[in-house]
Each structure stands twice: as C-alpha cells, then as structure tokens.
Amino acid sequence: MFRVFRAFVCLVAIPAAASAQALSQRGFLEGSVFAFPQEASNDPTRIVGDFLARDELFWTPRSWLQLAGGLDFRANTHDQVDDSWALDFSDRTVQRPRLSVRRAAATLSHGPLSVDVGKQFIRWGRTDVLTPTDRFAPRDFMNVFDNDLLAVTGIRGTIQTSAGTLDAVATRFTPARVPLVDQRWTVLPTGIAPPATPLPRLFPDSPQVGVRWNHTGAIDWSAAYFDGNNYLPNIQPLALTFPSMRMAGGDVAVPTRWVTVKGEAAYFASSSPATDEYVMYVVQLERQTGEWVFVGGYAGEAVTNRRSTAPVTFAPDRGLTGSLVARAAYTIDVDRSFALEGAVRIDGGGAYVRAEFSRAYGQHWRATVSGVAIGGQSSDFIGQYNRNSHATAALRYSF
Amino acid sequence: MSKRTPLSFVAFVCFVCFVRIVGAQDARQIVAEAQTRTDATSQRYEGLLQVFDAKGKVSDKRWSFERLGSHGQSKAVLRFTAPAEVKGVALLIVNHPDRASDQWMWTPAIERDRRIALQDRSTRFFGTDFSFEDLEERDVNQYDYTMVGDDAIDGASCWKIQSTPKQSKSSQYTKSYVWIRKDTYAFARIENYVKDEAVRRLNYSDIHNVQGIWTARQMEMADLRRHSRTRLTLDKLEYNVPLKDDDFTLQAIRRP
User: Fold this and answer.
1) Looking at the whole model, is its pTM more than 0.90?
2) What is the CA angle A167-A171-A176, rounded to 5?
3) Residues of A in Cβ contact (< 8 Å) with B83
4) CATH 2.40.160 is held by the domain A54-319
5) ipTM over the 0.90 cut-off
C-alpha cells in the first residue's frame, strides 16, 4: 500500500515541482470579542473572546488533479472549544475542536466529468434568506445568529453539459453543531431542567445520498433529491437522534427588468417517529444597483403531517419560516462596506436586526464591528433569544 | 424652379443618405478591422488593479485573467490573487455574438456561485471603477456605428466613432465614443454615456506589439460621477497559449 502511495506521490509531484503556479494558499488569523449586555438565565457570561486561525492549500500537480487541504485552530474564553489537541476530522464533537481538518479532498477531472473525494463543501440551492435544498451543508450553530458552514466527507461526481450540471453525492453523516446546553444559545422552556450530563447523540450509520440537476439558461433552475438524515437533531428525553429525511425540491431564478426573482421549495418526509413532514419554501427578490445590494423575501412552511410532540426543539431552518427576511449592503468605497439585515416574524412573535461595518487596512488587515438586536416572545424561535442581543468586534489578518 | 426643387431635394437627401451609409460602413469597417487585428485563440495575463478614490487614496488588487476563443465566442475567467482576503474569488464570463454575456461569480467564503443578472451589470466590480458590463467583450456586431471625425489622443491620430448598442446587447450605456488609432488600429479611448452624460472613460496606454497584436498594457477607467479611477496594468501577457475548454466552466472556477 505504501509503495502505491509513494509511486502516486512521485507521479504527481515531479512535474509539479517546476510550476509554482500549481500551488496556491489562503488563510487568516481572526480574533473576535462578543459582548452581551444582558445575562441569560443559564449563562451569566457577558464577554466572550474567540480566536480562529485557518490555512488552506490548493495544489494542482496535474491538469486533471487538484488536492485541497485546510486546517483550523481555535481558542475560546467560554469553553466553546474542546481541550483536546487531537486533530479532528469528523466534526462530530459537542464543542468546537481545537485543531481540525477544515477540508481534505482530491478533485479529479476529465472532460465534462469531475469527481471530488474527501472532506469538502457542497452547496445546493439558490436562495439566500433560507436554503431548503442545501442538505449537504450542516452548520455550526454555537452562536445561532453567527453560524458557519461545516464540511462533509464523501464523494461528489459532477457532469457538466451545455445545458447545466448533474451532481451525484454520497457522504458520511455530519451533524450540525448545536449550542451548548449550559450556554445562552440554549433556551429551555419554563419547567424543563437542563440535563445533568450532555445527552448522547445517536449518529446514523447510513450514507447521505443525493442528486441534483442544475440548469443554466435564460432562466436558471434546479431539481434535487436527497435521502439521508436531518443534520439537526430530534431532542428526546434520553438522547439526541437525527431523523431520517427524504427531500425533493428545486429552485429557480427569473431575471426581470428590475429585480431577480428567486424561489426555492422542498418537501421533507421522514420514516422516523415523532418527526414532522412539511414543505418549506422561500421567495426572494434581489437587486444590485450602484453601490447597493438588496435581498429581501419571505420564508414559509406548510406542515403536511404533524407528528412531533417534543417540548424542546432546535431547528433554525424551520424556526426562521413565517418571517420576512431582508438584507441591504452598501459598498462605501474599495475598503469600507456597511450591511444591514433582519428578520421579522409576520405573527409578531420575534424579530432581529443586525448592522455591520467593515473596513480593510492595507493588504492584510480587516476590522469589523457589528451589533445584533433580538426581541420577541419566549415561545418564538427568534424571540426566545431576547436576552442575547450583542455587539461584536473582530480583527482579521489575511495571508 | 418649382419643378427643379423636388429633384434637388431628392438629390440632396440621396447624397446625405449615401454619405451616412458610407460613413457608417467606414466606421463599422474600422471597428471590425480593429477587432480582427486583435484576434487570438486565447489570452492570458496577470493584472494589477490600482483603485484611486476621489481623495487620491490608492488600493491595490491583483487578478489573473485567461480567455479562450475570439470575439463574440469567447469565455474568460478572472481570478483574484490579492489582497489575501479575496484570493480565490472568480468571475466566469461567457460571451455571445448576439446578446449580452453570461456571468457568474464564485465566492469561496460562502462556497457558492452566483449569477450576475443583466440588470445588475452596471454595479461596480469589487469596488473598482469597472462595472460588470465593462468586463464583457465589445463585439463589433453588437453595436451600430457612426463616424464622428478625426481626433488625437496622446498625440496619436485617431478615428472618433460613435457606437450605439443594439437592443439585444442590453447595455447600461446609451452610447459610447470610441477612439481608434490610425497607425495601429488599436483602441485609444472609450467614453461611455448614459443619455447625454459621460459616466465612464477608459483610456488605453503603453501600447506595445505583443506577438503581432498591438495591445495596451495599461488601461485606466475613470468614473466621471464619483471622480475615482482604476488603473489596470497587464503583466506576463501572452496570446495563443494552450488553454482547455473545461477550465471555463462553473465547476472549474470553484478550483483556485
């Protein structure tokens, strides 16, 4: 086996040595401070510091082969990062890993066919305010309103034709990272006590598979099917389980004279007990003009079979439905930008607004300050975080 | 006299029409010749973008550019290489002979591509003074032309030609004036108008013969409303380099 590996390395490495262009790198160091004006009932900490170092390398030893690798190093003042220094690959830890593989994948391409093997990012869907068909993109929800994508491990084959692309994907299950139970982003209903120890998580063994046809033309559209498990858990008294999920959906983008109209919808069915079946949909309008970018829309849901009776749930995707969501971004100049985004529940149950100002200094530095205001009723997904309004200051050095 | 007047008038009208047709034909032929002289199967360069704001502050960006195919049928990929925070951001442009191009942008920070809609093409590209439309190829068949006259740019004698986009082009600009050097048929300046207001001016300079093609190695786009400008300097410019069609797809721009 080692001989085969060594032969492979020699095969790809020798021609590449002559070409510096075959190697590219990007990375950054970022320090952030989160300041919460109010204490939460389960979390008195009001200042949280976070540090992330990321480095990614892309190497193209042959025209038909690209290797991609990336590492993350994290530190946090509020116990959101695991103490272990072991290199994490699977992204299944309760806390964020201190040292983890962000991506490790090989891309082989031949004519219209390309195959990505390894830990990689796969994005489906076209809308921005919510993306129902984006089933291979679990997120880190340690901070619900400032979440980040997680990679998945598997294989993705893509065939490119003149009319579009056909994607076929099979991956190992990667769960979304949910908020820590003793921290402010976990809000338990009155009368329910937090568990003394973290609930065990029962990960499915079966692969997550999906196929998507993405058509490009005067009107872009796609149709997608997914068979696997929800990356968000059902919270049960004794464990967190990840219910089976079959998704059929699609998206469309229709350019008009004034705006681009985007729509995305998916039907979700499940064979797991106590799991709802529902349709989730998004309609959004998008326009860039001058230095402005506007995106606004409505995310909705229609439950076709209500089976869940759990008193505690964590579903940010479904939690955002029934809301008007909008974002406006303004490029002040080549170095400075300002953005405003928010969501308002149409039943008045909750709302949040975020304002962000960002400025670059020279070729490497960027400072960003933002403020998030959250309000509403405790029974509402957004409103339950009404004590979690916060301000953030971040400084990033990119290299 | 009364019998001769209509004849004179008809003759005059015919003459004016003839002059306009010949003039238009000449103008079109000049632009077509300028385009023919830059024909290449492919092109590659590394670009330095310097954005000068109204106060004179300068910001630098770098991109690599590859184009496959010739006018009206080409595909291009533009990939940022600096500053570090935008490394990997890429734009795929698929030009068409009979309509506006298709454009997609890949943003690695969110791992997604996004189509740039036609109505959004007047937006500035990444804080530079180039709009998305300015990154398209100007194919000769997508405009109507009128000869304006002779003019001089940087001491070089030029034809000054008015170009008006055909309806299928879907341009933000109402019209443009194009200056073409008489000695080399190289573009010297393009001035773009919205209605009667000049909004952007692109100056070509440092013109050299590269592999038989007269090429400006420096282009400066001025935004006349914002009083800012962006200078693009071409480095390591090559024509007719071996490039693969497979590298000009949505799949390919994901790969840095």
Assistant:
1) no
2) 110
3) 360, 362-364, 398
4) yes
5) no
